[in-house]
Amino acid sequence: MEIERKYLTEKLPNLSEAFDVWKIEQAYLADKPTLRIRKKNDEYILTYKDHRKTDSTGLETAAVVNEEIEIPVPQSIYEHLLKKKIGHTVKKTRYLFRLDEKHKIELDVFEGRLKGLVMAEVEFTDVADANAFIPPAWFGKEVSGDKRFTNKSLSRVEKWGE
């Protein structure tokens, strides 16, 4: 189960303070449920995601809750499936930061067609934690429930800002 909240970010933190950095390319193969292929540095991953309105306890939340299954695949499978993508490949650099003992930030700085878009995302262990979360001011506007800011939707955008 994946429970997350997402924010449009205009002010970047000091990127040199990130504890990890990933170069990510991902593309989408199906919509409902979502089937995605991703290259993360030198790893290749097939991901199944199915959106839910509640967590396993039935609690409603403003956070996005997904059932998510990731399967490592060889590069050859990734390259084969990439030819069958819907829309464009999303390219970004992900910087990982520790916010506090409980939370880490995934800061995505998009590239190519989406240059200029930056989003911060926080994952939670449960809906109560997600509902209680108070984001730092630099996070900007919350877009957790706004489907326009899912990577799947962004894969269909021709150019960011248009």
Quickly give the structural class: mainly beta
Strands of the biggest beta sheet: in what spatial order?
Answer: 1-5-4-3-2-6-7-8
Beta-strand residue fraction: over 45%
Q: Globular, elongated, flat, extended or rod-shaped: what is the shape? A: globular
The ordered H/E elements are EEEEEHEEEHH
Termini separation comes to 34 Å
Low-pLDDT runs of 5+ residues are: none
The radius of gyration over CA amounts to: 16 Å
- Number of helical elements: 3
Number of domains in the coordinates?
1
- Can you summarize the main beta sheet? 8 strands, antiparallel, barrel
Strand count: 8
What is the overall pLDDT average? 90
Q: In the CATH hierarchy, what is the class?
A: Mainly Beta
Blueprint of the fold:
Elements (H helix, E strand, L loop, with lengths): L1 E7 L11 E11 L3 E7 L2 E12 L5 E13 L2 H8 L3 E13 L5 E7 L7 E7 L2 H6 L18 H4 L8
Task: Provide the descriptors you would attach to this structure in a database record.
single chain; 162 residues; mainly beta; Hypothetical Protein Pfu-838710-001; eight-stranded antiparallel β-barrel; 3 helices; 8 strands; globular
What's a quick, concise take on this entry?
By secondary structure, this protein is mainly beta. The chain is built from 3 helices and 8 strands; from the N terminus they run βββββαβββαα.
Question: Could you please describe the fold and organization of this structure?
Answer:
With 162 residues, the chain is mainly beta. The protein has one domain (2-154): Hypothetical Protein Pfu-838710-001 (Beta Barrel). 11% of the residues lie in helices and 48% in strands. The chain is built from 3 helices and 8 strands. It has helices at 75-82, 127-132, 151-154; strands spanning 2-8, 20-30, 34-40, 43-54, 60-72, 86-98, 104-110, 118-124. An 8-stranded antiparallel β-barrel has the order 1-5-4-3-2-6-7-8. The longest helix is centred in the middle third of the chain and has 8 residues, at 75-82. It starts with a strand and ends in an 8-residue tail after the last helix. The model has no long low-confidence stretch (mean pLDDT 90).
